[in-house]
Design brief:
Number of domains: 2
GO molecular function: adenyl-nucleotide exchange factor activity; protein homodimerization activity; protein-folding chaperone binding; unfolded protein binding
Number of strands: 6
Distance between the termini: 51 Å
Strand content: 25-35%
CATH topology of the largest domain: Nucleotide Exchange Factor Grpe, Chain A, domain 2
Largest sheet: 3 strands, antiparallel
Shape: elongated
InterPro entries: GrpE (IPR000740), GrpE_head (IPR009012)
Pfam family, one: GrpE
Strand order of the largest sheet: 1-4-5
CATH architecture of the largest domain: Roll
CATH superfamily of the largest domain: Head domain of nucleotide exchange factor GrpE
Structural class: alpha+beta
Keywords: Chaperone
Protein name: Nucleotide exchange factor GrpE
Order of helices and strands: HHEEEEEE
Length: 102
């Protein structure tokens, strides 16, 4: 699903034949609708507190704008169906800056 999403987004910047672009966009929309009708949702996690049970941390960065570990960027989307996580999002986590003792 994510590969198809990347292809559809790349069509905006390539010279793909219009019929191919339209066909791929139609397949992507239809698949998105089918997944939604089955209760599959993309997880919205940017700016939320990092939870190691729900998110897969790929990278940590220090930030002076957060007080707890917070999802700063989504590198790969996550999906859930109800309370069950089908695929955890791969994320970059902002950590509070360490206080210098000095």
């Amino acid at each position: 699903y994510e590969d198809l999403e990347r292809v559809v987004k790349s069509l905006e910047t390539t010279d793909a034949p219009p019929t191919l672009a339209q066909a791929l966009q139609m397949v992507y929309r239809e698949l998105t609708n089918i997944l939604a009708s089955e209760g599959v949702e993309k997880m919205d996690v940017i700016g939320k507190e990092f939870n190691p049970f729900d998110h897969e941390a790929v990278e940590y960065i220090e930030s002076d704008t957060v007080t707890v570990d917070t999802v700063a960027e989504v590198l790969s989307n996550g999906y859930r169906m109800g309370d069950k996580i089908l695929k955890p999002p791969r994320v970059k986590v902002a950590r509070p800056m360490k206080q210098s003792s000095g």
